[in-house]
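Entry type: protein chain
Record version: 2
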Amino acid sequence: MTNTQNALQGTLLAVDTSTSSMSLALVRGSELLGEINSKAERNHSIHLLPQIQQLLTAAGLSAKELNAFGVGVGPGSYTGVRIGVTAAKTFAWTHGMALLAVSSLETMALGAAEAYLLGESVHERDGGSKLSALETVQNQARTLWIVPMIEARRGQAFTGLYQVSNQQWSCLESDSIRLMSTWTEQLLQWTQSGNGNKPDCIIFAGETKLHGEVLQRFFLDWEGEAAELQHEIRARHMAELAQVRWSEGRTEAPHGLVPNYTQLPEAEAKLLAQKS
């Protein structure tokens, strides 16, 4: 069976534990078999495996019947990312399934773009059985920039820049930890430079609450359409991105998969600061 056939017909489990929310989705092709979303940042390690079993049981499946495991590799909570990635590597190695690494920020960006375009109706679809976020986002005529944000404290956020234009979804600036005041200034300069596709709309999405002042300054300076959308990661969106990677043969070796932490854990950072 080819990679494309696997992605279209195989059963995939998608998991993200990079934020205070934990999301799991079980899919087969374009069909959403089940999804669980919960908030338990300090207890991801306790709840992840029971919720995986809950999903599988509800679908009448066992772990050995899975064909692929898609996992959010961050950036985000150091401990959270590690929990999800460790589970994914263990499942993939134990059961010989395809392992697919997906940016947690890209998952957030895709879900936010869909939510923005569909408005409130996206919430009515949360119980729906079909995966269609990429189709919804790509099948619209405008150029959208989506700036996903996961809080990183001290005026910083884990963030990147994703674009949909000419029916193509792409990453314009890779995930990193950035000072939001500097990052928004840089984004504004790019919109005025004339390089590439000038966006029709810019969407800041995710954990935006603590950056309201910085975002409001951006909105005052940016003359186009813009939005701030508080949005949580949903594994159903990760599953779609994982399927694209699966169809292209972009799988990971279980022992070689490295999460994208983008910074030292706080304890190590403090230790280095004390030494210096």
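Comment: The CA atoms of residues 56 and 62 lie 6 Å apart.
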